[in-house]
Amino acid sequence: MIRALRPAVLATLTVLVLLVLSPFALVAVNAVKSPDEYGTDGPLSLPNGLYLKGIADFWIRVDFGEKLVNSFVIAFAVAVLAVAVSVLNAYALGIGRVRGRSAFLVFFLLANLLPQEALVYPLYYMSKEVGLYNTRLAVVIVFTAIQSAFGTYLLTSVFTTFPREMLEAAAIDGAGKLRTLWRVVVPISRPSLSVLFTFFFIWTWNEFFLPLVFLISNDKQTVPVALGVLQGDRMMDATTTSASALLGILPAILFFLVFQRTLSRGVMSGAIK
Amino acid sequence: MRLLDLPLNFRRRHAPAATANNTAPRRAPAGTANETGPHHAPAATANNTPPRRAPAGTANETASRTPAGSVAAQTAVPQRTRTATTSRAASRRARTATASNTAPRRARADKAGSRARAGAVAALAALSLVLAGCGADSDDGAGGGDGKTLRLWHYESATSAMGIAWTEAIKQFEASHPGVKVQFEPKGFEQIRQSANMILNSDEAPDLMEYNKGNASAGLLSKQGLLTDLTEEAGKRGWDKIGPSLQTTSKYDAEGIMGGGKWYGVPNYAEYVMVYYNKDLFAKHNVRVPTTLAEFEAAMDTFVKAGVTPLSVGGAEYPAQQILYELALAKANRSFVDNFQLYKGKVDFKGPELTYAATTFADWVKKGYIDKNSAGIKAEGMGVAFTQGKFPMVVSGSWWYGRFVSEAKFEWSTFLFPGNTLHPGSGGNIWVVPKNAKNASLAYDFIDITMKPEIQNLLGNSGGVPVLADPGAITDPKSKELIDNFDKVTSTDGLAFYPDWPAPGYYDVLVAGVQHLINGTKSPEAVLDEIAKPYDDNLASLGK
C-alpha cells in the first residue's frame, strides 16, 4: 500500500518544489535576458543567450560591493550583539528567575509584535536627537533591540529547562554568577546560540523598511535598499530588476548554505536524550 | 582577577544534553515586527510591483488632510533647528572615540573574549567601537553650506530622457561654476516616497531633489514648512513661462492643495496620455488613424471582426482608470476638471460626463474592445503585450515612449485620444529645494540650467516631453511627433491631470471600480456610486 503511494507522493513533492522554485527561475531567466528580447518575447520565454550586461550595469550603478559590505557589517554586528544581549537577558529571566519574569517576557515580545511602521517615527526622533540619523550604528542598535527581544523570549524558555544540578555543581565548585554563565551555560547552549546567530544575521540582512528610512546616503545603504533604487516612479526596468533580485538573494542563499550544518544541528539538538 | 582553572571541564561531556527540548527558532507566528513590514521580496520584484504614478494618496502617503495623515504631519514639523548642532557634535565625539584603526582592535578583542568572562565584555566594547566607526562619518555627505557642493537627488534612471538631460545639466553646471562639485546620488522612488518628510526635517536634507507632485506629496511637505518658497526665483528667472496647467502642480496654497499661489516646485518635463498604435497591424487590417470618437470605435470594430482585441489594457493598475477618465473628458469641459481636481465646485457623479464614461466603458468591454481578462493585467504586462505585437493599440502615458522606442520591433506611432480636447496629463515631478538646504542658491542655478533650451531640447530629443523646448530644435522625428501632440494639448489648456488625484487612496478605489466594469460584476451606476463615496467623504473631511 505504502509502496504504491510512493510515486504519488513523489509527484506531489516534485510539483511543490517546482512551484516554490518557479519565481526564482523566472528571476534567473529574466536576469540574463536583454531588454529587447524581453520586449519582444515577454517574461516567460527562455533567453537566447547569456546577457550579463544587466547584472554588470546594476552592480556598477549602485556600487553593489559597497552595499554588500554595509549589509554584512550591519547584519554581523546585529547578530553578535543581539545574541549577547539575549543570553544576558535570558540568563536573568530563565535561570535567575527574576521576579515578574512573565511580565518581562510579554514586554519583550511586544517589541516583536509591533509593526515597524509604528516604530518609525519615535525611532527617527530619538536617533536624530542623539545624532545617529543616517548612520549604520542607528540601524544596528534598533535591530539589536528588536532581534534580541525575540532571542530573549526564545532563550528564556530554553534556559528554564536548564538542569539545576549542573548549576549547583558549578556553585559548589565556587563559580560565581558570571562565571557560571560563561563557563557552563553558554558552552552548553552553544547550538541554540548559533542558530539564533544565523537567523538574526539573515533576518537583519533581509530588512528593508527601517534601513530604507534610516540610511539616507547611498554609501550607507544595504543590499535590499539598493534593490529598491531600480523601481522608478512609473516605469520599471524588468530585466535589470531581475538581475538585481538575483544579486540580492545570492548572498543570503550562500550564507544559508554555509551555516546550514549549524542550523540543522541546532534544530535537532536535544531532540533525543 | 582570579582566573584559577576550576574543574569546569565537564562542560564538553554534558554539552548536548542540555539545550532546549524543541523550538527550532521560529519566528513568533502572529505578525512579528519583521514580517509585517514591507519586506523586499526579490521574487515579487521580478514580474510586477506597480509602477505607481499616483501623486495623491497611495496608501502610505495618506494625504495631509485626513486625520491619519495629520498625525504624521504634526509630528514632523517641530524642532528643525536644534538638531544640526547636536548631531554634528555627537558624530565628532564618536569619531574621536573610534581611534584610527579599528580592525586590529576587534581581532585582539575576539581572542580575549574567548579567554575569560572579562574578555567577553571587552569584545562587546570593541565591537561597539567598530560600530561607532561606522556611524562616525555621518556628516561626510553634508556639504555644510560652503557654497562648494551641490547635493542633488533624483530617481530617474540614467538612460531615461530625464536622466540623460540632467547628466548633461550637471556637466554644464560644473563648467559654469568652477570649484563647485555636484554630489549626485541616484535615489529610489520608494525611499523618497516613504521618508521624504523625515529626511527633509533633518540636516541630511539635500540641496535639491526631484519630488512627487501633488497634494499628498509636495503639497504636504510645503504645508509642513519643509520646502522653500520659490515664487520669487520663478518670477526672476522666468520659470513661470511654462503653461498654466503645468503650473498647477508646482503651486500650492497654505493647505498644501495644488493650484495655489506659491511656487514650491518646478517641473522640468511633462507627461500626457495618448494612444500608441502598431502601424503594421493598422496596415494589415486596413485601418486608418481615427480622428473622432466614432471613427475610433469603427476602427476597433474592424479589429474585433478580424478576431483581434484592439486595446491592450492593464486593469489591475492605472491604465484602465485613465481610459475611463478619457471617456469622461470626451464629454467634459474645463470647469468639470476644475471641480473634480481642484474642488472648485460640486461634481455630479451621475452627471453626463461620468455616466457616459462608465456606460461607454462597459459597452467597450461588451463589444470586445477591451478584453474581459484584462482586469488582472498590470501596467507592465499591458506594455509588454503591446511591444510583442499582440495588440494594435494601447492607451497610456508618455512615460512609455522611450521604452517603446527601444523595445518595439515594429513600426508604431501615436495619436491623441480621438475627439478629446482634454487629456489626462500634467507637469512631471518637480524640483524642490528643501528648507534645510545648505546651498539653496546653487540649487536655483541648477534648476535654471535644466530649464535652459539646450537641456530642454536634449530632453525632448531623448524621448521626454520638455516644458520649455524650442520646437524647431527637436530633430528626432519620433520625438517631434510626441512634442507636437503635447503642444496641441497645452495650446488649448488641455491637461486634465489624473483621475486618482482628488482624494487620498482614490487610486485603489478607481482600480476596484474599473475592475467591476471589466468583469461585469457591477452595473455602471453601481460603480459610479462606489467611486463617488470616497470622493465625497474626502471633500467633507476638507470642509468643502
TrEMBL record, chain A:
The chain crosses the membrane at residues 68-91, 103-125, 137-160, 241-259. Keywords: Cell membrane, Membrane, Transmembrane, Transmembrane helix, Transport. Belongs to the binding-protein-dependent transport system permease family. It holds the Pfam family BPD_transp_1. Residues 68-259 form the ABC transmembrane type-1 domain. PANTHER family: ABC TRANSPORTER PERMEASE PROTEIN MG189-RELATED-RELATED (PTHR43744), SN-GLYCEROL-3-PHOSPHATE TRANSPORT SYSTEM PERMEASE PROTEIN UGPE (PTHR43744:SF8). Its main location: membrane. It is found in: Cell membrane. SUPFAM superfamilies: MetI-like (SSF161098). It is a multi-pass membrane protein. It comes from the Bacteria. This is Carbohydrate ABC transporter permease. The keyword Cell membrane applies. It comes from Phytohabitans maris. InterPro entries: MetI-like (IPR000515), MetI-like_sf (IPR035906).
Automatic annotation (TrEMBL), chain B:
Residues 59-78 have a biased composition (Polar residues). Residues 14-113 are annotated as: Disordered. It comes from the Bacteria. InterPro entries: Bact_solute-bd_prot1, SBP. SUPFAM superfamilies: Periplasmic binding protein-like II (SSF53850). Residues 16-30, 39-56, 80-89 have a biased composition (Low complexity). Pfam families: SBP_bac_8. This is Extracellular solute-binding protein. It comes from Phytohabitans maris.
